[in-house]
Amino acid sequence: MIKKIQLPLQTMNLVIGFMVWVILSSLISFIREDISITIQQAAWITAIPVILGSILRVPIGYYTNLWGARKVFIVSFILLIPPVYYISIADSFIGLVIGGLFIGIGGAVFSVGVTSLPKYYPKERHGFVNGIYGAGNIGTAITTFSAPVIASRIGWSSTIQLYTILLALFILANIFLGDKKEVKVRTPIIQQIKSVYKSDKLWLFCLFYFVTFGSFVAFTVYLPNFLVTNFDLEKVDAGIRTAGFIAVATFLRPVGGWLADRYHSLILLMYVFGGFTLAAILLSFSPSIQWYTVGCITIAACAGIGNGVVFKLVPMYFQKQAGIVNGLVAAMGGLGGFFPPLVLSTVYEMTGHYAIGFMALSQFALVSFVLAVWMYYQDKLSLSYQLMESSPLGMMVTDRYGKIMTVNPAFTELTGYSYEETVGNNPNMLSSGQQSKKFYEDMWEKLTNDGFWQGEIWNKRKDGKNYLEWLTISAIQDDAGQTIQYAGVFSDITNTQSLQKQNTNNL
């Protein structure tokens, strides 16, 4: 029972963490009425929480593997109560900056769930599960929508103090409902970093998340004040519009994970970054509120789907180092939300408009689009792909979960199944039923331990006829030594076997 409630519990924990994380950006318009703050200072106040919320994601991901999600959430929420209360009584720019720095812990807890929850589910569901957990981003929408409404009635200071009660309630919830027996991983953090830092995929994923999650955070903290100052909207109206942006991005995050479970992740990212590029260019022309809304909603949709896709890719390539890699990628995403508000406010003070800032976002997105295309076609045009196409031996490549990714022409000739009929299916489509369960268990045991299996196996062609093949299966590993694919090479030895039997009978 405890294990079954970890997904909803940890998702709600993330909701609370993100609600706290954006307190200042949601209420900055109210705070400026009581405390003298310039536009540039307001940008710093709303951006500061992102710093600790980003940097702490690396150690928090590591300690989640070491201690378990229950302890990390409890400690994080206890540490959040003092700075939240301190902000509620702050009366200066410095006070808000100090309190804002430490409420960054609320954003750092993101690393907990993406490290802990995959332990409870099969690998083929990790994209969707991480997407559901990531939907905890809705916490930013809840605060952005509700905090201004409450503050208009009881004041911003009392509104912030209400969050200490929420934190106390979830400390108790984790004490009683958190999983005390979560599987722990005790590999030293330095050893984990050394095993992954040379991987180009790690840094590409960091860039992709820098753009997708960074834009989500940046727009979340910058929109409330921007809509008030640039379009003269009411503070509550600006909060509602920002909440809409957050809601779109949040609800599409699990959709991104779901899509990544079914389609090629890099192709999905091409669409995501293409959409980012066009939307940012639109915003750079300082459009009316109607076109600005179109641009923002497009960015929200791309950010949500992109976030889900990136965190499907991470556990596929880095299983044993999931904690540290999740932390590094998540940290880069958080930092991606720190710089844009500052850049936009600086550009505005220097030029009187935001065009250069939005154009910079479009260029980052365009670079990411090109890199996603490059990664995709690098696989397509690799030497192994060319050899596979020309080999007389049947070849099949599956992902680590057993889904067939590609086959060569010789496979079609030997089995009768076309490329379209095969890709996306499981190799058991060829099963003849002549091998026992123990046969396959022994095969996978050797493949897991040695990364290699070779032997005879009876399979079935599309026309229903059985044939004997000599099969070699090899595990394909990435730069971090993790198995990411399996390659099978086989030849039809049915006639050879029959000839040997005939010769034996003649003797």
TrEMBL record:
Membrane topology category: Multi-pass membrane protein
Localization in the cell: Cell membrane
Transmembrane annotation, as ranges: 12-31, 37-56, 68-87, 93-115, 127-154, 160-177, 202-223, 238-259, 266-285, 291-311, 323-348, 354-377
PAS domain sequence ranges: 386-426
Keywords: Membrane, Nitrate assimilation, Transmembrane, Transmembrane helix, Transport
SMART domains (alphabetical): PAC, PAS
Gene3D superfamilies, per the entry: MFS general substrate transporter like domains (1.20.1250.20), PAS domain (3.30.450.20)
Coiled coil: none
Domain (Major facilitator superfamily (MFS) profile) ranges: 5-380
InterPro entries per UniProt: MFS, MFS_dom, MFS_trans_sf, NO3_transporter, PAC, PAS, PAS-assoc_C, PAS-like_dom_sf
Record bears the keyword Isomerase: no
Residues of the PAC domain: 453-505
Family to which this protein belongs: Belongs to the major facilitator superfamily. Nitrate/nitrite porter (TC 2.A.1.8) family.
PANTHER family assigned: HIGH-AFFINITY NITRATE TRANSPORTER 2.3 (PTHR23515)
Protein name: NNP family nitrate/nitrite transporter-like MFS transporter
Lineage: Bacteria, Bacillati, Bacillota, Bacilli, Bacillales
